[in-house]
Design a protein that fits this description.
two-stranded antiparallel sheet; binds zinc ion
């Protein structure tokens, strides 16, 4: 069984995405996840509840490209 867990917004505490690992990782190709955007400051998610910016770090692993909460 995968060690999934929910990752909450640090600002409002609402659920943002389900991570498939213990490290708050988000697969780059996950179709049902919130879309990771990027701008000159880097990659980020917007909380669907409050719009808070969550910085994400792009990491290449042996499972493919994932994003991890920064
Ligand atoms: Zn929020």
């Amino acid at each position: 069984m995968l060690p999934t867990h929910d990752v909450d917004c640090r600002y409002c505490g609402e659920f943002v995405f389900t991570s498939l690992s213990v490290d708050d990782e988000l697969p780059a190709e996950g179709p049902t996840f919130p879309k990771v955007r990027s701008d000159k400051e880097g990659d980020y998610l917007l909380c669907p509840h409050c719009g808070h910016r969550m910085a994400m770090k792009r990491i290449t692993t042996d499972k493919g490209v994932v994003f991890r909460t920064a």
